[in-house]
Design a protein that fits this description.
Layout lengths: L1 H23 L2 H30 L10 E7 L10 E2 H10 L4 E16 L2 E10 L3 H5 L5 E2 L14 E5 L1 H8 L9 E4 L2 E8 L15 E4 L21 E9 L5 H18 L1 H4 L3 E6 L12 H34 L1 H9 L4 H35 L15 H27 L3 H7 L9 H36 L9 E6 L8 H15 L5 E7 L9 E4 L1 E2 L12 E7 L3 H4 L6 E2 L13 E5 H7 L9 E3 L8 E7 L14 E5 L8 E7 L6 H12 L6 E5 H4 L7 H35 L1 H9 L4 H33 L12 H26 L4 H7 L1
Parallel strand pairs: 4-9, 6-8, 16-21, 18-20
Antiparallel strand pairs: 1-10, 1-11, 2-10, 3-4, 3-7, 3-10, 5-8, 6-9, 7-8, 12-22, 12-23, 13-22, 14-16, 15-19, 17-20, 18-21, 19-20
Helix pairs in contact: 1-10, 2-8, 2-10, 2-11, 8-11, 8-13, 8-19, 9-12, 10-11, 13-19, 13-21, 13-22, 14-17, 19-21, 19-22, 20-23, 21-22
């Protein structure tokens, strides 16, 4: 066995040296093949790095596979209802010890951090005391929040900084420990810095700070029922670490039992609530929801795979043509005793070597593309991390080796069947144009054109979808509007001082030149922050065993609907007189009116946000449906409350201008700072810029860019393939062309002869591509907004474009073939 292994190793080394010599003698071949495969592997590496960054990369914590997300499920809840209340979390910690070694949670929010006479808004996590210990995270500096600090309440709270925020705000100063700061006007002491690799558990976001979450914490400041002592206030993301030896089914059974027990003990808040255990990586971006990111990533990975297939077809054609040149060498090797397996291995090693070199080029291209994508910050603390790890490199290597086998297998099999006598009789001539080899090459071209057309049509649908979305009705007019998000509570303002501040600010802003209108609201559409409330309709009791429906809403000031150009369909808008001294009122959208008061006018109808017995809110108006949380959402119930009756410290100032809104930003900032220079201002931008965030056009714009890039790559590869085959065919028919011209054929006859063959391949490729594109696009129909999956305009324009480009790829070698001189062609043969 030892001698056999040594012989095999020696022959393998000989084959590798032979492949290297052959490749070194063909620099043009190496360049063409490596660039072609590099483009295909680069596209796949980029898409896989995105998929890996979002969904596959484990948390940088101890034993991340043991971390489970505990999620609630409630019927008729918008955006999925997967949050816990603080009291439910405490009950689970006490009762689930047999299956979980730790249960912990956090609540993500924004706060104002004041230090060194400067205040700014930060992304903050309120975490249970065992948050860091359960995750097994160690501090970079100082210490983290202790389990005991999650139970006690103190005026001086321990504050942990995120690594990036520590570097950005405090310059990475290690002496920061013990520094006194203020968070939302309350004192806090910096006790530590989290490690660089740990950015928190919020999907695609980086946390700036961490504070203890305990029974005295007010969640979702100034929202109804925001206290941690309210069992119905569900704002906490809960997680647990499985006990060693416990499986997912056992944990789920235990959680179900605890949920049923809580429903019996607290029917008002817990009846109809189901509890689930989900592995952390399967809960991204949100548990129990349609994982749109996973769907999009897999579909784009399939598109990238199709691009790689086009590259493989191209290279297979090149290597097949080259194999015809090497037929004599293979025949001689066979005559000297080389077996068929040795000949196949020789060709495969060469193709794998070329593919690995192409894979290296693809990794570089993928790294550049992934770095560019990672550098995009759609909004605020959203962070995209598509950096490479071992999984990306392993994927690229596997793709390269697999590609090398695929592109080399057919040439290897053909070369291994070479017969020395036939080669010598042919005098080195290749297969005729009508031979089996030519038919295979023709089939590959048809596949290339069809695959390229499919990728181009999908890319065109994404681009059309983005364009259509930017023109679609949002339910409001985003043009010429400037947003500025403010929260005086972040620097310690009480409710009355906050009201006075906003009243004075509106007066000052209203005097700015070029201003058309101004209003306040708690949030703006697709902003990422929103309010929800349980909804009790008067006269419509909640079914037994269920929770009331949860509905999204916004709190708005006078003039909001006129400012945002939202028309009134019925009734009236809130006015200054609708304050806390008057009966509560609301406006509802069309979907809400149709769902809760079908076939009747909702005006005068009443509902409650607290209980079926009231207090009640009276409907005074109806407005059209709009987009509220995500650009691609379906119509959903939504209502509006007056800010004067539903106080919110955090508000968005919205200013509509008669001039370009960009010019108003400086003036708006100046007026805010003139009232309080220490007040943080976040998201000071035009409404159009705001719509470029994750809830707006960002995902669709990135999809259009990636799809468009792959479409262009696919078209280039298809055109190169068509050109290569037509050119090769023309060169193989040199003698035939010479004879035809000697017998009287003119240049036009030769041109038509070569074009006919190329155009036939294009026609079959187009037909195959249309069928495939129709099938693929219908499967992706849910990802297209504002355009049909079988949009005739996209299909026709893309088909004409590819046909025209492919025709020119045929015309160039056909035109060259007309220059053949009969005497030279016949003499050469």
């Amino acid at each position: 066995m030892g001698s056999r292994g040594a012989v095999l190793l020696a022959t393998l080394m000989q084959d590798f040296r032979h492949a290297f010599r052959i490749v070194r003698k063909s620099p043009v071949l190496v360049a063409v093949v490596t660039i072609t495969l590099g483009l295909g592997i680069g596209a796949n590496t980029t898409i896989f790095s995105v998929l890996n960054g979002f969904l596959l990369r484990p948390l940088p914590v101890r034993a991340p596979e043991e971390i489970m997300v505990l999620a609630t499920e409630q019927k008729d809840a918008p955006l999925g209802s997967y949050f816990f209340s603080y009291l439910d979390l405490q009950d689970f910690k006490k009762q689930a010890g047999g299956q979980f070694s730790d249960i912990f949670g956090y609540e993500a929010n924004f706060a104002g951090l004041s230090a060194d006479n400067k205040a700014e808004e930060v992304a903050i996590n309120y975490v249970t005391g065992n948050y860091f210990s359960a995750l097994g995270v160690k501090p970079l500096l100082g210490r983290l929040i202790l389990p005991s600090e999650g139970e006690m309440m103190s005026d001086d709270r321990p504050l942990v900084l995120g690594y990036s925020y520590w570097e950005k705000r405090f310059g990475g100063d290690p002496s920061i420990l013990g520094k006194q700061v203020h968070v939302d006007g309350r004192p806090a002491t910096i006790v530590g810095v989290a490690p660089k690799e740990f950015e928190g558990l919020v999907f695609a976001a980086e946390m700036d700070c961490y504070l203890p979450l305990n029974k005295g914490t007010t969640l979702q400041a100034d929202s109804p029922g925001g206290s941690a002592q309210n069992r119905g206030a569900r704002h906490i993301r809960a997680l647990g670490r499985l006990q060693r030896g416990t499986n997912l089914a056992q944990a789920q059974q235990a959680v179900t039992v605890i949920g049923e027990r809580l429903a019996e003990q607290y029917p008002v808040t817990n009846k109809g609530i189901k509890f689930h255990v989900i592995p952390e990586r399967l809960s991204r971006p949100v548990p129990l929801g349609t994982n749109i990111i996973l769907v999009i990533a897999i579909l784009f990975l399939l598109l990238a795979g199709l691009v790689l297939l086009l590259a493989c077809l191209n290279v297979a054609n090149i290597l097949a043509a080259r194999a015809m040149v090497l037929r004599r060498e293979m025949a001689v090797r066979a005559a000297l005793g080389a077996g068929r397996f040795r000949l196949i291995r020789l060709v495969l090693i060469e193709s794998i070597f070329l593919a690995v070199v192409g894979g290296a080029v693809g990794v570089v291209l993928g790294w550049l593309a992934s770095s560019w994508l990672s550098a995009i910050h759609p909004v605020g603390n959203v962070r995209l991390n598509f950096s490479f790890d071992w999984k990306v490199f392993a994927y690229s290597l596997a793709a390269a080796v697999f590609t090398g086998i695929v592109v080399g297998l057919w040439p290897a099999l053909r070369s291994s069947r070479t017969d020395l006598n036939s080669v010598l009789r042919e005098g080195g001539r290749s297969d005729s144009a009508g031979g089996f080899g030519q038919r295979i090459r023709s089939f590959l071209v048809v596949a290339q054109v069809g695959g390229s057309l499919t990728v181009l049509i999908v890319a065109g649908l994404f681009v059309r979808s983005l364009a259509g979305m930017q023109r679609m009705s949002l339910g409001f007019d985003p043009d010429n509007v400037v947003n500025a998000v403010l929260d005086p509570h972040q620097i310690g303002y009480d409710a009355q001082r906050t009201k006075d501040f906003y009243r004075e600010l509106q007066t000052r802003i209203g005097k700015l030149p070029g201003l058309q209108s101004v209003s306040f609201a708690f949030s703006y559409p697709m902003s990422g922050y929103f309010d929800t409330a349980n909804f009790y309709v008067e006269g419509q009791p909640v079914p037994a065993g269920q929770q009331p429906p949860t509905v999204l809403y916004n709190s708005v000031g006078p003039g909001y609907f006129e400012n945002m150009r939202i028309p009134l369909l019925q009734g009236r808008a809130p006015v200054e007189a609708d304050d806390e001294t008057m009966p509560s009122v609301a406006l509802v959208n069309q979907t809400m009116a149709a769902r809760f008061w079908p076939n009747q006018s909702p005006l005068g109808k009443r509902f409650s946000l607290s209980a079926s017995t009231g207090p009640f809110v009276r409907v005074i108006g109806v407005v059209p449906d709009g987009k509220y949380t995500f650009m691609g959402e379906t119509p959903q119930p939504y209502f509006y409350l007056p800010l004067a009756q539903n106080f919110r410290s955090k508000r968005v100032l919205q200013v509509r201008s008669l001039i370009r809104p960009e010019y108003l930003r400086t003036q708006v900032r100046r007026e805010i700072q003139s009232l309080d220079p220490g007040l943080p201002i976040s998201d000071l931008q035009t409404m159009r810029e705001a719509l470029g965030g994750p809830g707006g056009f960002f995902i669709f714009r990135m999809g259009a860019i990636l799809a468009g890039a792959m479409g262009v790559l696919g078209m280039i590869l298809a055109v190169v393939g068509v050109y290569g085959v037509v050119s090769f065919t023309a060169s193989q028919r040199t003698q035939e062309i010479g004879i035809r011209m000697a017998l009287g054929a003119n240049r036009a006859n030769v041109l038509v002869l070569i074009l006919r063959q190329g155009c036939t391949l294009i026609l079959f490729g187009i037909l195959a591509g249309l069928i495939l594109a129709w099938t693929v696009s219908r499967g992706m129909a849910s990802l297209f907004v504002g355009v049909s999956a079988t949009d005739p305009l996209t299909f026709s324009v893309v088909t004409l474009l590819l046909t025209a480009v492919a025709f020119w790829a045929c015309y160039i070698p056909a035109r060259r073939a007309t220059g053949v001189q009969p005497t030279i062609a016949l003499r050469g043969e």
